[in-house]
Amino acid sequence: MLDTPNSRPKDLEAIARTGGPLRRMAARVPTYLTDLRENPAWLPMFVLARTIPFRRAHWLTARSVPPSTKSASIFGDIKAQDVAAELRRTGIFSGLDLPPEIQQEIATFARETPCFGNFERGLEFLAEDHAEAERRFGRTLLSGHHFERVLQCKAAVAVQQDPLLIDIARHYLGGEAKLITTRTWWSFPTKSASEADLSRASFKFHFDLDDWRMLKFFFYLSDVDADAGPHVYVKGSHNRRRLKHQLTLLVGHSAEEVLGFYGEQNAVTMTGKAGTGFVEDPFGFHMGTLAKHTPRLMMEVGFGVSKPSKRRYHGEPVIR
Ligand SMILES: O=C(O)CCC(=O)C(=O)O
Predict the structure, then answer these.
(1) Among the listed ranges 116-125, 136-145, 159-168, 245-254, which one has the minimum average pLDDT value?
(2) Scanning 84, 105, 166, 292, which has the fewest C-beta atoms within 10 Å of its C-beta?
(3) pLDDT digits (tens, 9 = 90+) for 57-72
(4) For atom 9 of ligand 1, which residue has the closest CA?
């Protein structure tokens, strides 16, 4: 989930993220139907994977881990077992930093390749033209995704294919772990957002429910300080769940409610220089915050255990 509202009521994804609970659920119905048509096994996952007993039962089906490949990783000598152990304990591991030349190549690609605003393919612009694009489209543009264009970038593909990532995914999720997402996107600060846009966009803790067991690797491709939209993760919330958060239909919950239960001291704000990388179990509560002054450029590589959704693969809410 990303922080991308805009003020037009016809934008279902914006309502789905920012409206009241009933409107949010109703707005997601077409998306759910698309998922169901593509993969009927999505429905039991969607209904049951939010509950701890069913998740634990599913985890018992994990296949054993095949031997690691011997090929060298761009991340150096990090042990997948150690990362998986930390993931099991806290839900997040940091210290997977990109080599500078890889970070620079992806950042250059992202600057030079037009992106799509607010997940809409009709809103295409170059990141440096963001202010002009907002005027041209008459819309607040909070995000810009490159969708499948990311695969034109050799360095991004090298990250996606790095042997350490699949090795960590297998040690954590089981031998059947497979690639399910690869995306790059900008999160833009914007002058034209109303106060309402900003307050809706900024803080919404949520958990991901795209598969039974998932892992997401995130890489900052621009420097991210407290004002550049850092990612926030609530440690421990991946395997301890308030009953209310298991029986809810909604994945998003207020910061007050989440921090009140899982503990403010467990919320980690991930800041770091361009190239900083971390991996998390996205069943734990997390969120992206709004970039206040400088755009944030991010890459995500996600792993799961089921057939990947075509819709989600490059971050697209619904394939239109
Ligand atoms: O933008 C971010 O930092 C968070 C992305 C996110 O919430 C997600 O991929 O589920």
Answers:
(1) 245-254
(2) 292
(3) 999 999 999 888 778 9
(4) 1
Distance CA 79, CA 96 (A): 11
Amino acid letter, 303: F
Please indicate, yes or no, if residue 319 is contained in any of the structural domains.
no
Interval between CA 231 and ligand 1 midpoint (Å):
7
Residue 286 lies in a domain: yes
CA of 67 from ligand 1 middle (Å) equals 31
d(CA 217, CA 215) in angstroms, rounded, equals 7
Q: Average pLDDT of the chain?
A: 89
Residue 231 belongs to domain with CATH number: 2.60.120.620
Give the nearest ligand 1 atom to 230 CA.
3
Domain presence at residue 216: yes
pTM equals: 0.90
Q: Identify which of 163, 170, 10 has the alpha carbon closest to the alpha carbon of residue 76.
A: 163
